[in-house]
Every structure is written in structure tokens, then in C-alpha cells.
Amino acid sequence: WEASTAPPAVAEVGAREAGLRLAPFAAAAFSELGSTSQAKREAKAGRLTLNGWATEPARRLRQGDVLVLRAPPSRTHEAREATLRLAARMIHDGYTTLYEDDEMAVVHKPAGVHSKPYRGAAHLEAALPALLGAPSGAPDVLPAPLAVHRLDARVCGLLLVGKTRSAVAHLAGELAARRARKRYRALLLGPMLDGLGPSCTDCEWLRPLGRELDLRALGEVAEGEEEEEASGVASCAWAVSAPIGGRASLSEVHVVEETPHVQAGALTTVDMVPCTGRRHQLRIHAAALGHPILGDDLYGMPGLGAGSHLYLQSVEVRVRHPSGGGGGADGFVHVRVPEAARFARRRERARMGWEYEQRLAAASEPSRRAMWGCDGKGGDGGG
Length: 383
Hints:
Structural class: alpha+beta
Strand content: 15-25%
Order of helices and strands: EHHEEEHEEHEEHEEHEEEHEEH
Largest sheet: 11 strands, mixed
Mean pLDDT: 85
Distance between the termini: 93 Å
Shape: elongated
Number of helices: 8
């Protein structure tokens, strides 16, 4: 992947486009741009100009206006070396490519790095040219691959990537229309098998989910599996529709297992499915239930042995392929990964800590009974 050295691209605003804002018009007019957000970045960088002048992405256009998109400067040797170093760091931290063709890719982003540009910090998108295969000869191929959505810097897991303008538009449309399905694995604080806390009593934004349909949609019950063989634990599931920022939102929460924990009572392993795409949606909804995600210092409780980790991972994505010919036989790209090893390690440490406390309590019981004369050998001789 190398930046284009082609001459500037030019587009003129016609009568039908008059009144549109600059960024969405440019995204549709220039195949080099993969999305409206990319057009905004080019305008802010001064490479997308209006009538020869830099302008704001929200500027409304008039008939006869001329937009010019200049190609990014050629990548220097130093820039290529920086990209390779960043790619090596990503691989070391756990990056993998799970699916790739000429139009799109599904990659696993490691925790601790942003998905897209953010305040000058290192981000996965900058390393994608070195991590993915060479660009195809498609007429709308992008100068560099684009992440179609974001994962928080502290969240690891599956990320959709577009390699052509049409693929980015298709994948973004599938996400916006809620036709793409994503599943996350998380560790929540507190026991949930016996129900939720009193703060959730009579909540209008909370309702239980049916077991069979939801489990099969998540892939937790294989086709033909007998109902008795499926664990009853997974029957604990809820739909959470607490508004976020005044906007409607919806998440599914499915309990997988519960592990005793000394301070929190339990660590509950759950699968979470975001049905809408609000910022920090799963973290906010988990906190609304009274069971914040382990390691969430923004909406939950810091500490409790989480270290710097946020125990939230994108583990499954299913989306229709941009051209319908890639992916599986049904035309969908469906990728699943196991939870990160640190999830099992954290559960084991919680279990060991709880067992240690139980042994300690059992060992101290005879001493307390003897102190109060309740050791079963009589009291002070009276009676």
C-alpha cells in the first residue's frame, strides 16, 4: 500500500448537488475517499479545497463550486520504516488477520491501541498497510485500508476493515442498519445467577430474554443439541434499553458462568450483544445493571485486581460480504475467536482467593468456639 502520486482530482457541483455539505458530497464524488469522516479529515488537513481555498467540512455548496482533492504526499523511507515498526508492535501485542480478501478484512486489534487516529496517539489504522495484503486492482481501491468502526483503546477484539470505497460504504451501512451482529465477552462484578440487584426492580428499560432463540443466535447451542445438554446457567439473559445521552440504545446480556470472588461476591462471565452503536454502550449498560465491567475505572469500580486491563473483548462478528461472493456459502463473513487467556486467569485467581478465604475461616472457627466455650466439651463445668 503506497500513497497515490496521481494528479489532483476535481469535481464540480451541479444544480442537483447545490445545498449539500462539503464532506458528504466529496465522499460521493471522489473514489479516493472511503467515507464522510475521511473527507472531513482531508478537508481539515488542507488537501480537500473549495474554489482553491481551504474550508470547513460542513460548508454548504453552491452550483458551480469546484472541489479539488490533492493526493497525500508520497511515503518516505522514514515513514515506511515507522509503519513497519508499528506493525511489528501490533503483532507482538496480539494482532492477527482472521479474514481477508480484495474488498475487506476482519482483524483482531490488541488492547492498548486506538482503532483510528486520536490526538496523535499510535493507532491500528496506521499499521494496516503493512499488516494486510497488497491492494487489488479495483477501480475504487483506497489509498490505505480503513477501520469501519471503532473499538475503545482498552478493548481488544474483532474489527471490520474496508479496502475499497464500496466495501467501506457497504460495511458502514450494515452496521448502521443493525444487520451486522457483534458479540463481546466480558467479566462483570457481582453475582447475577440469582437475579439482578434492587436497583433494577421495575426498570422500564430492562426485560428478560427467551433462552432458546438467544442462545442459538449467539452460537452457544449447536444445531441438533438436546436442550438438557445446554447449561441452565445461560438461561439468565436480559435486554437492556437504558438511553445513552438521550438516545435510544439496546444491548443483550447473556450470563455464561459465575465465579466466586472475595470482594465482589462473584465475577460473572457474560456475552454482550450491542444492538445499537452508542459510545461506551456496553460499559454504560453493564454499570446500569449494577454490575460494571471488571477494570472499568470510568463507569465502574477501579482495582479489584484488574490491573490496567478492561475485561471486555469483541469475540464474534457476522456481516454480509460487500459483493456477496466472499465469505461463506451464504454470502456472509462470520468470524469467531476464543476469549483472551487473561479472562480464564482472572477467574482462576478469583476462585483461588475465595477458596483460601474459606479455608482460613474454617480454620479459625474452632478457636472462636473454644473462646466462647462452645467447643462441644461442656462450658465452665456448671449446670
